Amino acid sequence: MKNQTFKITLMIISICAVVYHGFNLLSLWSDIPNEIAIHFSNNQSDNWGSKYLLIIMPIISILFWFLIQLVVRNPENLNYINLTEENKEIQYAKAKKVMLLIQYAGAITFIFVNEAFLRSAVGMDTTLPIIIAIVFLASCIIAPIYLLFWAAALKY
């Protein structure tokens, strides 16, 4: 039941992020110039692309989500540290939870990076979407590291 609540919470956050970004993208589409900044160095744009690139990132987000979903379905196919018959169920459950976090947080990261590109294109402040993207990306990095150390410390 804990995993189900966790999954539903992540799903609600993801749906809210996608709906928010989709609404912004559609409502600001006419204000977006045909050529937008797609790469920055020292707060200066140094590479440009079509505004239609703003559609690609949400597609990548969805593809990423489906790819990780394939892994989440079968946590027993992952590699584990100190896996025994006694602890395999708890290890599978924790790995599934971490993979769910990576699945949803990774997808949300792509959405908010795209939101930052969108805001930059129309001259709005990009600080908040970048901070949100960094927080979700950090959770994708920290969670597996935590799981690795937790599994290494198992005694049985």
Automatic annotation (TrEMBL):
InterPro entries attached to this UniProt entry: DUF1648
Domain DUF1648: 24-61
Keywords, alphabetical: Membrane, Transmembrane, Transmembrane helix
A Pfam family: DUF1648
Origin superkingdom: Bacteria
Transmembrane segments: 12-32, 52-72, 98-118, 130-154
Protein known as: DUF1648 domain-containing protein
The species this protein was found in: Ureibacillus manganicus DSM 26584
